[in-house]
Amino acid sequence: MHYDYILIRYGELALKGKNQKEFLQKLNRNIKEHVKADVGENPRIEREQGRLLLYLDGAEPSKYYNALNHVFGISSYSPVLRTSLKMEDILEGALSEFKQAMGERKEVTFRITARRANKLFPLSSMDLATEVAQYVSDHIEGLTVDLKHADIDLKVEIRDEFAYITTQKFPGLGGLPLGSGGKGMLLLSGGIDSPVAGWSMMRRGMTVEAIHFHSYPYTSEMAKEKVLTLAEKMACYSGRLVVHLVPFTKIQEEIGHYCHDNMRITIMRRIMLRIAEKIAQNREALAIITGDNLGQVASQTPESIYAINQVTNMPIFRPLIAFDKEEIMAVAKKIDTYETSILPYEDCCTVFVPKEPKTKPKVDACQLEEAKIENLAELIEQAVANSEMVVKYGKVIEKRVQGEVK
Ligand code: ATP
Ligand code: MG
Question: Residue 175 domain-assigned?
Answer without folding.
Answer: no
